[in-house]
Amino acid sequence: MFLARKHRPEDTHSVFEDLVRRHEASIYRVAYRLTGNHEDAEDLVQEALIEAYESFGRFKIGTYFDRWLFRILRNTYIDGTRSRPKLALESLDTTLTNSEGAQSTREIEDWSSHPETRLLAATLDEPIQQALLALPEDFRLVVVLSDMEGLTYEEVSQIVGCPVGTVRSRLHRGRLLLKDKLHDYVAK
Amino acid sequence: MWRNSLNCTRCTDYLSSYIDGTLGALRSTAVRDHLAQCRRCRREYEELLRLQTLLRQLPAPAARGDFWPRAHATVRQHAEARQAGKAQAARRQRLGWAAPLSTRFAASVAPRAGLFVTAGAAFMLIVTLAVPTYRTRTLPPPAVDGSRVASRAVPVIASAQEINADALMTLHASHNAALPLADSGRMRYLASEGTREDWQDGALDIH
Fold first, then answer.
1. Which residues of chain B have a CB within 8 Å of the CB of A17?
2. Among A9, A25, A10, A35, which Cα is nearest to A66's?
3. What letter does residue B109 receive in the DSSP assignment?
4. Most CB contacts within 10 A, which of A77, A88, B10, B33?
């Protein structure tokens, strides 16, 4: 049974808004962990909410609204990633050569000595977020939904749109990659 | 026995599912037995456990300031705009062609303005290219008697640039005998005020 068809348009919106309010925290959490910063997370959530509202007529009573919204969030994120040009990554240590052939190195301020950065680094949030962002998107999404949001393999499978076996495999490989990147924190 | 075939590689593959409690009973037992004897796999298992604990204990990032009120307001505006669009579409459908011209224009022409501009430009191009060709093809005029020309009422168009002025005069004289000059505004002008030089500038229409 579909929820939104039973309501007048103004009621549909208030039902939608009420459901979103109940899950604001987890929606934003997933968006932030996927994007890694507040600006992109806000854009992603906003876009996903519009998409969700457009599709609200297909939301079924008796199913989890947050799971349904996560699926839209995931699709919106993947679509946005595909449409963005891929960045070419270059090591900061790479020697630069100008048009006259002269070589130089980048002079970068050491932000790690700043009090604010030191405070941030003191927590584990930043290194873990960086390690998450270094994962392939498919792995990151599965790790975030499973290990951070506590969803089951089946729920993740429905959100991501792949078999449970694929979820299990991506989760395992994602964890191993994360473990390597966070070796200093997880190794005894 | 199956459990004896579990090596380190296979054990590592099963560790995630083992931690999540989604591994079958038989395999779980095999993994447990392997971990009891293999220090390397046990370390791997403990690190994965620690990682999972870290991920779960991570502080939840909260949205900044007034993000959620703004987000809800944006969705509300979107919903209202959508509803207004639907209402307008329903009204158009209900009124049909009785709807005001401005409404019909806005609904049907305005969205396709680009198409109309393109079609207009194409039409102008065709006219520009086709008229000289048409003129050329209609020359020279057939030598027919006046009554026949009058009855057909087909315009004969000649250009001073295509035939000389004398030929045009001759052409006019031959047609003029059959048709009143009043039928051709341009010819009337030539007969009363124009000179031969004027003819060089444009076309002469003879009916």
1. 72, 75-76
2. A25
3. I
4. A77
pLDDT band at A173 (very low <50, low <70, confident <90, very high): very high
Q: Identify whether the C-beta of residue B62 lies closer than 8 Å to the C-beta of residue A33.
A: no
Looking at CA atoms only, how far is residue A95 from chain B in angstroms?
36
Name the residue in chain A with its Cα closest to that of B63.
A28
The neighbour count for residue B66, using CB atoms within 10 Å, is 9
- pLDDT for res B128: 79
If contacts are CB pairs under 8 Å, which of residues 93-132 in chain B contact chain A?
none
Angle between helix A9-22 and B67-95 (nearest 10): 160
Provide the ipTM: 0.74
Please determine, for residue A31, whether its predicted confidence score (pLDDT) is greater than 90.
Answer: yes
For the cut 70, the answer to whether the pLDDT of residue A133 exceeds it is yes
What's at B120, amino acid-wise?
G
Domains of chain A: residue spans and CATH? 4-83 (1.10.1740.10), 117-186 (1.10.10.10)
- Asked if residues A56 and A63 have their Cβ atoms less than 8 Å apart, the reply is no
Please tell me the distance from the alpha carbon of residue B46 to that of residue B178, in angstroms, as a whole number.
113
Min Cα separation A99/chain B (Å): 44
Q: According to the per-residue pLDDT averaged within each range, which of A34-48, A52-66, B74-88 is highest?
A: A34-48
Question: Does residue A157 have a pLDDT over 90?
Answer: yes
Q: Residue A133 has which token pair?
A: 């962002």
**What residue type is assigned to position A93 of the chain?**
D
Question: Which pTM value belongs to this model?
Answer: 0.60
Q: Is A154 exposed, middle or buried (0-12, 13-18, 19+ CB in 10 A)?
A: exposed
Question: Residues with Cβ < 8 Å from B16, sequence gap 6 or more?
Answer: A168, A171, A172, A175, B48
For residue range B50-73, what is the model confidence (pLDDT) as tens digits? 999 889 888 888 999 899 999 999
Torsion of CA B148, B150, B152, B156, to 10 degrees: 100
- Both tokens of residue A54? 């457009």
Q: Six-digit token pair at B38? A: 């293999």
Answer whether B63 touches A (CB < 8 Å). Answer: yes
